[in-house]
Each structure stands twice: as structure tokens, then as C-alpha cells.
Amino acid sequence: MARGEVDPFIKGVEREIGPDRVSTLPEDLLSFSYDAQHIRGKPSAVVRPRSVEEAEAALRLAVEHNQQIVPRGAGTGLSGGAVPLDNAVVLDLAGLDRIIDIDERDFVAVVEPGVVTEKLHEAVEEKGLFYPPDPASMSACTIGGNVAENAGGPRALKYGTTSEYLLGLDVFAPAFGRMRLGGRTIKNVTGYDLVRTICGSEGTLAVVLEATLKLLPLPPARRTLFCAFSDLKT
Length: 234
What we know:
By secondary structure, the protein is an alpha+beta fold. It folds into two domains: 6-92, 2-Layer Sandwich (Uridine Diphospho-n-acetylenolpyruvylglucosamine Reductase, domain 2), CATH 3.30.43; 99-217, Uridine Diphospho-n-acetylenolpyruvylglucosamine Reductase, domain 3 (2-Layer Sandwich), CATH 3.30.465.10. Helices cover 24% and strands 21% of the residues. The protein is built from seven helices and eleven strands. The strands form three sheets. A five-stranded antiparallel β-sheet has the order 5-6-10-8-9. Strands 1-2-4-3 form a four-stranded mixed β-sheet, covered by helices on one side. It has a two-stranded antiparallel sheet with strand order 7-11. The model has no long low-confidence stretch (mean pLDDT 93).
């Protein structure tokens, strides 16, 4: 979204969602000006929705006022995906942290974008299920951020990255509004594969509001291997 009218947007958020959901305090703007790297931006405001409906309302207001929005999860990324451009508004999605469903029969989990990856691991493993993607920052990073970055981890060598476990998305795109893409099945050939197009797009195409994830049976055992080499050629 292009740079637009910040003040009318902020007033709209305060009116429709609540004054406690938006901040322009210098300390908040500083906290949300960077991710895990050293590049910084200068956000004009931070919006903190506590439900999908509040996030959607804020995004609709952003479209109405042509206000640039940068979605943010936990800010653990290193690619700058959550770093705001000057005068952009940061949409903090950490408050959307519900695990909506864990379906033990269909091996599917439905979660909001602010769910911490490690918390999802713990929740599904209690039910004998397994969610393989394990980014190094999994104790802090969120599923929404994992989708935006197509995150992986050490287990990606065997199991693949986030895109391999993404079945469906509930997203908001500036040009189309809120959309549901994909579903709860692995085989889905209706139209373009927009789910995987959005996965790894770093928030440039749409804001993730909900993700439907494929699960596996929990492995009965785990082993860690360490390989050492005397030089790069061998």
C-alpha cells in the first residue's frame, strides 16, 4: 500500500477498534522499527489487534486511507520482512495467538498467525502428532512469520519447509479484501496455487490471518547426527 493519510487512519482505528489498540508513543515506535537485524525503519504508528476481526477492520481502514501497512509477528526474521518503511504503520499480529483446532483424525491444525511455533509443537505432540518445521527461533517466532518467510530449520533436510505443510490460508489482500485459499486437503487443484504463492512473500502480497497446517504422526524416537569434515572438498 502506498503512503497515505496517517492521522485519519489512526483516528479510524481508535473509533472502530479502540484507542488502546493503536500507539504512537516513541518507545513503541522504536521497539517496532527493526527485526533481528540492524536495519531500522521509522513507523508512524503501531496497531495491535486482539482478534482477526480487529485486524481485518484495521486493514480495511488502511485501504480506505491508502495507508501503508507492514505486518509483524515476533520480529525474529533476518530478511527485513517486518522492518517498516518510513511512515508505514506496523500491524502487530502477536495478539492473534489462538490454536483454533487440532484434528487428530485428519492430521490438521488450524491456528492464528501469532501462535508461537514451539507452542504449536507442544500442543500437537501432546496428541501424538508432529509439526516438522523447526526454525532456530521457534521458541519466539510465530506461524504467521513462518508462512511469510517460508521458514525451515534443521529438520527441513528430511521434512521440508513451511510450504510443505501449508494446506490453507485466511488472508487479507489490499486489492481483494479477505479471502480463504486452499482448504483442509492435500489434493486441491481448483485454480492457481495461491497458498504457496503467498508463502515466502514476506508480507508483500497479503496479511495472514489464519493458517491450516498439515500434521504427521509423532516419530517414536529422535536422533541427532553430527558430521565433521577435515576440509570443504571432502
